[in-house]
């Protein structure tokens, strides 16, 4: 008999989305200088959620000036212990309003409420809590006895984990004594704007945190602003390249967290049921909108048939749909643009000879959706094995020996993350040494923690976020 | 113009041919070119090889080939080899002092002091081989049943434009890059390149695997852009780039493959000052490994 | 994992891998390992499923139909067992629409009373046997125990495996005992209790599950209820994976019974979600999945009443026997 789960929607009534939002500059919401605005949309319904300001060059000037003033007069001179207490306060308010933030994140981003509720928002609070404690202990962090802040940080974040990426940027910057101007992604500005309100509730001094909404032009103006000391960016490798070019010849310090095409390597002796879970979590978590997603599955040939059968069976149980339904596993694709990109790349995958299999999930009529998909018969030469799809699409390749696995795994200009599945300890440690990636998950995948540094090799960017290492990006020494 | 006929010396000195150092060998530039190097007094000292883009290419190939073995060697082994290099340097103190003095001028004792500082600097960096991971790595107390460890790893192939300070400056940029397991393509000081090639002779006889250090002499403006644009170079140290416009251009080029870039110092570097770990850490990546803990 | 020649059934497969003590050992140690953290996490994630309204109604009724209402006390008497049987047959006297439990589960001495009481109803009689709960008696005594229960009319026999033999690696001995018990059962269904709380690792749970299935068990059951921990979600997950894989390999379907420690309707529904998303809906039937429990039944009834009336129920309104 079939067990049909009835809809179990989280209530939207907990969030109060205003019809229009200004920019958050110097502690208050202000209209953009030239009055420009954009719409943010619920990707699950295509419903317009709010009008949001588009910051222009004059707004960037204003926000950077506010941040500079706050840095010089308030936040820079403030004892670390006092900065810490502000950050602890913010962490607590986030915990208190966790449900509201989770619902808003799912509405604006399309991610399942189970993830925003159990992963994103708890990690956001944990991140502020972790870095709060560093604010008055910077001399013990291993970057000199008296490390100094850099000044004003210009930060640009992506749409895949909107509030979590904000936390990764703002928490260490503030702990180290910097002030920030942050631009959330064009399609997911709402939780950053709610965060601005949280800053007000925490009585954070004006200008310490400034939030400028807008698109690529706003981000460019911020990154290229002459009075910004530090640039932190998470997003595509292409934009990362432009930023690296634009800062040439300046004294700006830069950290970049860019794309990836992670290999998830499964050996025949792996704990197969957990490996299947790890593969699913690796590529279908957050609709595959994850820079460190395990998008290239490398399976030892002797077990590939069995593993794929298990994987497909497991994929048939994935529940795709309403992000606010507590039983949804895979939510909406964040935007029409991203959906088009995923479709294009998967079509190319088919044209190039990949065998496509999509989970037979019913998809809603409205909104942006893509069924969890696996491509087999993929080789290193296929575009779907090389390019970041940033969607719920897995490419499967095989290998015969550990050496071959290493060669294939490393055969990419990226180097953000990698996965290893084997019950043999010495093989894990050998592979962990050989894989050119900043995060190696062995017998697990897509785990994050405020104490754990995250960041890539090669074209996946430079610098680390999280942990003691994450402080270094915001300290002069 | 008629010149005075010199009397033949009692014994004719055997001159050294200064060549490149690539893959553990001393080839001439594939271009067949050389350029005259003058001493501080403006007198001709020797011809140095004038490296071309193809020499850069060969050097990067050699450096990449050496990377696996060198980065995979034990830290103790790398430390031993670097210390061995210091021992070899010590044995050639007089030769280096002569070359430094010829290149840079100044007194003999100043040149000696520089050589001694360079040797001591090398020893200082050699000792970091098996300590940097302990200073830069740590366990991370994650909120879950996981082992989680961050440790530094070498960035890969590093392109270095060495400063003009002919031995101390050279050693100060080279030793920190290789001690952690990187391999190097180094562009020696354009005007004072000869001590670098003599250093290569030391490297070639110190158990340092061929290709770990590759030294090119020539015009920085000609070769550095090829290094900055090479897709198999992972990082760039622009310390020795004196031309600010060139430095910007190189940084921009390096951005195409997101190389890690160490910009030239704002003011002239003080090579005599005690170094910190920045030159080590700039060319390190942090790798974090997770594993569940369960019976 | 060993691959099966096409067309071979469970018996051929079992004969092949259990041919010798060595082949059995090789097979059990060749099963894929279980990563504890990953398994725990999977079970925990499935436990966040939110089962509401019509789905909850359906699940509560199914769970009631899956209960093996159990009493296994030294102080059990015919009177106690008669009351238990009455409860199993009609869990909610106030509601004729409430389904009966699957079975009652008692000691062998009380089987005649139970058989007598449930006669004519759909409720089956299960008896623990084989010197439950320790099993530390000679095989002949275990077989006599089983024979007595079956002779008294038990429909189902819940045996315990020899954990000592299992943990010391004498898999063949455990195998032979189960085979002998199965034979003694005759037509009665055999549930094999692994006592997972004593096995120490999920790898052992997986091996013991396969061992029991290969030896002919009809059900694999987590626990006696006398050892802590008893049933847990991750242990049940491992066992559900085992029956799923066994059917895939041999074509034979085996049931699963978590027992002990399942007290709330919420817990029971989590188990049903686990069944649904691990083994699949073929197992969502009292023939293939049971709960060994006693107090669980009343909580299921209270939740059922809450759904029907829209108000929270009180324990005084449900019978305690």
TrEMBL record, chain A:
Residue span(s) of domain Aldehyde dehydrogenase: 31-475
This protein's name: Betaine-aldehyde dehydrogenase
Taxonomic source organism: Actinocatenispora comari
Keywords of the record: Oxidoreductase
Domain of life where this protein originates: Bacteria
Active-site residues from the entry: 257
Gene3D superfamilies to which the protein is assigned, alphabetical: Aldehyde Dehydrogenase, Chain A, domain 1, Aldehyde Dehydrogenase, Chain A, domain 2
One Pfam entry name: Aldedh
Family: Belongs to the aldehyde dehydrogenase family.
Example GO molecular function: oxidoreductase activity, acting on the aldehyde or oxo group of donors, NAD or NADP as acceptor
PROSITE patterns assigned: ALDEHYDE_DEHYDR_GLU (PS00687)
UniProtKB/TrEMBL annotation, chain B:
GO molecular function: oxidoreductase activity
InterPro entries according to UniProt: Ald_DH/histidinol_DH, Ald_DH_N, Aldehyde_DH_dom
SUPFAM superfamilies noted in UniProt: ALDH-like (SSF53720)
Keyword Oxidoreductase listed: yes
Domain called Aldehyde dehydrogenase: residue spans: 38-261
Keyword terms, alphabetized: Oxidoreductase
Lineage top rank: taxon: Bacteria
Protein name from the UniProt record: Aldehyde dehydrogenase
Native organism taxonomy: Bacteria, Bacillati, Actinomycetota, Actinomycetes, Micromonosporales
